[in-house]
Amino acid sequence: MFAANIFHWWLGVGLTIVSVGSIIALVGGYLAKVVAPQYPSRRHQRED
């Protein structure tokens, strides 16, 4: 039973790391695809 306890603890740690990484990737993707085009840098502005 001791090995099962350790296995479940490491399984929780791994799932937590994957979950946090997924949330960071989701927020980063949203900022890159949705928010960034609303505020173009000076290099990407069109001169009208």
Task: Give an account of the 3D structure.
This protein is mainly α. Helix content is 71%, strand content 0%. It is rod-shaped and about 65 Å long. The model has no long low-confidence stretch (mean pLDDT 86).
Structure summarized in a few sentences:
The protein has 48 residues and is mainly alpha-helical. 71% of the residues lie in helices and 0% in strands.
What would the keywords be for this entry?
mainly alpha; 1 helix; rod-shaped; 48 residues
Radius of gyration: 20 Å
Mean pLDDT: 86
| Count of DSSP strands | 0
By helix and strand content, what is the structural category? mainly alpha
Strand fraction band?
A: under 5%
The span between the termini is: 71 Å
State the helix count: 1
Global outline = rod-shaped
Question: What order do the helices and strands come in, and which of them pair?
Answer:
Elements: H1 2-35
